Structures are given as C-alpha cells and as structure tokens.
Amino acid sequence: MLDDGRYASISEMATAERIERGYLGSLLRLTLLAPDIVSAILDGRQPDGLSCAVLAGRVTVVWDAQRNTFGANRP
User: Fold this and answer.
1) What does the alpha-carbon distance between residue 13 and residue 52 come to, in Å, rounded to a whole number?
2) Three-class SS of residue 46?
3) What is the pTM of this model?
C-alpha cells in the first residue's frame, strides 16, 4: 500500500488501518528478510532459534548476515 502510493507514510497507513504505528513498523521490517528465510518460515523449515520474538528485535537488512545470524546457511 505504501509502494502503490495508497498511503504517503507509515503513520498515515497506521491511522487508516487502525494499527499502532510502532507495531506496523515492526511488521514492515519483516519485508526486509531474505527471500529464502521467508520461504523457510512459510514452509515450517525456519532455522532453530528463529522466533517472532527474535524477529521483533533488531535484524540486519543484509541477507547474508541474516543467514549467518539465524544459521540458515547450515544444511
């Protein structure tokens, strides 16, 4: 909705969708996860230790660093 120009900002989107701005910001950070990590989560194959609590914290936007942090590079 932001990319499509429906909303000009996260604050505007949060207000319109009746969502707390901080929570929406946390959700939007999930769009920065490496695609293979997202696929693993959706397939139930997420790396050990990867939880909502972990993802709610600070996660680097560098995909290789995400893979190293979460152990996604391991077989």
Assistant:
1) 23
2) coil
3) 0.70
Claim to verify: residue 54 and residue 75 sit in the same structural domain: yes
pLDDT at residue 42 above 60? yes
Host domain of residue 14: 1-29
The DSSP string of 19-38 is --HHHHHHHHHGGGS-HHHH
* pLDDT, tens digit, 9 for 90 and up, residues 8-38: 999 999 999 999 999 898 888 889 999 999 9
Q: If DSSP codes are grouped into helix, strand and coil, which group holds residue 66?
A: helix
Amino acid identity, residue 60?
A: T
Residues 41 and 67 in one domain: yes
Q: What is the DSSP letter of 73?
A: T
